[in-house]
Design a protein that fits this description.
- This protein has 367 residues and is an alpha+beta fold.
- It has helices at 2-18, 46-58, 102-105, 247-260, 275-280, 296-300, 330-338, and strands at 62-72, 79-91, 97-100, 111-116, 122-131, 136-140, 164-169, 177-191, 197-204, 216-218, 224-231, 242-246, 265-267, 270-272, 286-291, 306-307, 313-314, 318-322, 325-326, 345-352, 355-362, 364-366.
- The strands form five sheets. The chain has a six-stranded antiparallel barrel.
- β2 (79-91) and β3 (97-100) form a beta hairpin.
- The chain is elongated, with a radius of gyration of 30 Å.
């Protein structure tokens, strides 16, 4: 409708111009409007030049990921692929490994992914490994090394609120989109899709929208400091609160995924009571229900919940602290232990029959 209206307006303008004639009927020249002068802008500011340089350096490392599902016609003869969603990722190394969010590429049998590099070449992606607990996934493509530009990786342990951040990704399918902001907060806790908590999460006001998931959050030096993962969207749209899984978590997970396809974590080998039960008992901490045979917890002397000879329930150890840091519930215990290394010895404080006791536990590998 707008185009039609504009065309009509232009057609009506012609007779008015033709009507400009002198008394003898000769046409008079129609003056063209003078072009507006262009004001020179001068040099770009240092901040602009820095942002442009960062984008031009980092954007070739950011990829566009399409999740595909194989479907067959109703007779079952012809197979065809249907796009199931899109997201972002970034090149990890020149061996073809690409890092993204698990929720970007998760799917059932017959599902696969395509990776489009910044040069617009497309490559089928092979899944290497998944870490659903931290929403991290690694894919691999067979692109030649000269097409692959890994992003430099930073650290998230020394970040400060107020630092500049930049996100590059493919929101709503708009590839190679740059947004900027700052670190709004640190040490947030969000939940992965499987319900497990992810700790140490970075909050940023750099715009993150659907399709940004899996893309890098960068600092002002162009280093990856996180993977853009989630937004707080009460109305279903961006409201200035985005979250990124910290790069220190990613750096722990990705090498394991590349080597073995899975992630092992430090633990002590116990089963814990549901927190609802602990609250109903009027307790605060992580209540030990069972201790695995031969586990680190058994060697350290942790006690499980059991029944005595008369059938009464005897509560096991209530874990209330790790290395002096309080443990409010089972989630807290998991997060405290994940900050440590397999083989490290930690001091676990338990409440046993109303008395506090410290036990030294050497952390074991858990899958």
């Amino acid at each position: 409708m707008i185009l039609v209206a504009l065309a009509a307006a232009s057609a009506c303008e012609l007779p008015a111009r033709e009507a400009r004639r002198d008394a003898g009927g000769a046409s008079l020249p129609v003056a063209s409007p003078a072009a507006a002068p262009v004001t020179p802008r001068g040099d770009l500011s240092e901040a602009e030049q820095s942002t442009i340089a960062l984008f031009e350096s980092a954007s070739p490392s950011v990829v566009y990921i399409t999740n595909l599902a194989v479907r067959r016609d109703f007779l079952g003869f012809n197979a065809f692929e249907i796009p199931q969603g899109t997201g972002s990722g970034f090149v990890w190394d020149q061996d073809g490994h690409v890092v993204t969010n698990y929720h970007v590429v998760q799917g059932g049998p017959g599902q696969r992914a395509m990776v489009r590099l910044a040069d617009q070449s497309e490559w089928p992606a092979e899944p290497v490994g998944f870490d659903p607990d931290h929403d991290v996934a690694v894919l691999r493509i067979e692109a030649p090394p000269e097409r692959l530009r890994p992003l430099p990786r930073g650290t998230s342990r020394d970040l400060r609120v107020g630092q500049y951040t930049m996100a590059i990704g493919n929101p709503f399918g708009l590839d190679q989109t740059l947004t900027t902001g700052v670190i709004s907060a640190l040490n947030r806790r969000i939940r992965a899709q499987n319900g497990r908590p992810i700790q140490g999460v970075i909050q940023t006001d750099a715009a993150i929208n659907p399709g940004n998931s899996g893309g890098p959050l960068l600092d002002s030096a162009g280093r990856v400091i996180g993977i853009n993962t989630a937004i707080l969207a009460p109305e279903g749209s961006y409201v200035g609160i985005g979250f990124a899984v910290p790069v220190d978590t990613v750096n722990r997970a990705v090498p394991q995924l590349i080597t073995s396809g899975r992630v092992t974590r430090p633990g002590i080998g116990v089963s814990l009571a549901q927190q609802r039960v602990v609250r109903e008992l009027g307790l605060e901490g992580a209540l030990v229900v069972d201790v695995a045979r031969g586990s680190a917890a058994e060697r350290a002397g942790l006690r499980p919940t059991r029944q005595d000879t008369s059938g009464r329930l005897v509560l096991g150890d209530l874990i209330v602290a790790v290395n002096g840091e309080p443990v409010a519930d089972a989630e807290d215990l998991t997060l405290r232990l994940e900050q440590r290394q397999i083989g490290e010895t930690v001091r676990v404080t338990v409440d046993r029959n109303g008395r506090r006791q410290d036990l030294d536990v050497r952390l074991q590998a858990l899958e």
